[in-house]
Structure formats: structure tokens, C-alpha cells
Design brief:
Elements (H helix, E strand, L loop, with lengths): L2 H69 L2
Protein name: TIGR02449 family protein
InterPro entries: CHP02449 (IPR012662)
Organism: Lysobacter arvi
Length: 73
């Protein structure tokens, strides 16, 4: 193989490696972003579950009070 052909192949391989490195960097950034979003959503879910439990407790207390009032009338 002549030297020019070898240099062209080496340059092609170097270009491909650089493309793959760029893609790996983009995927790592996307992965980081998705993990942050997941953490945020899990926090929001936890907050909503707590609020739901509070609301359920309040509704149950109101029902108990209404039943108590109903029995006393």
C-alpha cells in the first residue's frame, strides 16, 4: 500500500474516533440531564403522595365528624 493511501486511512480512522468521542460526550450529557429530570420528578411525586395522604386523612376526619354529628341529632 502506498503512503498516501495509508495516511488517508489513518485520517479516516481519526475522524471516526473523533465522531465517536463527540457522540459519547453528547450521550453522557443527555444521560446527566435525564437523571436530573428523574430526580426532580421523583421529588415531585413524593410531595404529591404526601399531599394526597394529608387530604385523605382530612377527608376521613371530616367523615368521622359528620357521622358523629349525625348520631347526636
Amino acid at each position: 500500500m502506498e503512503q498516501a493511501q495509508l495516511l488517508a486511512q489513518l485520517q479516516s480512522l481519526a475522524d471516526r474516533v473523533e465522531q465517536l468521542a463527540d457522540r459519547a460526550r453528547r450521550l453522557a450529557e443527555e444521560n446527566r440531564s435525564l437523571r436530573q429530570q428523574q430526580e426532580q420528578l421523583m421529588g415531585e411525586r413524593s410531595t404529591l403522595l404526601a399531599k394526597n395522604e394529608q387530604a385523605r386523612t382530612r377527608v376521613e376526619a371530616m367523615i368521622a365528624r359528620l357521622k358523629s354529628l349525625e348520631q347526636h341529632t
